[in-house]
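User: Just a sanity check before I run the rest of the batch. Below are the structure tokens for the first item. I only need the designed sequence back.
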């Protein structure tokens, strides 16, 4: 995921979201609210999507580097880190 997010452009990401969202019937097991979020994301400006991708990349990098699981990482705050 980290490698993908390092290489994907906003246009590619938007195109992928539109493709998945427009083929809802082919993707069973994905909640309808997830498709709604994809639609909302597709309508955002490029700069907003770029910022969202940067935050997601930072979060995924934190998990990969620390070995944390996603649920643990959700509640991490800056104060949880110690200066070494």
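Assistant: Here's the designed sequence for the first item:
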């Amino acid at each position: 995921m980290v490698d993908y997010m390092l290489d994907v452009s906003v246009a590619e990401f938007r195109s992928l979201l539109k493709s998945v969202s427009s083929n809802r019937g082919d993707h069973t097991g994905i909640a309808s609210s997830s498709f709604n979020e994809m639609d909302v994301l597709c309508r955002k400006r490029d700069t907003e999507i770029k910022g969202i991708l940067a935050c997601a990349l930072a979060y995924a990098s934190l998990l990969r580097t620390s070995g944390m699981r996603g649920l643990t990482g959700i509640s991490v705050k800056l104060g949880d880190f110690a200066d070494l």
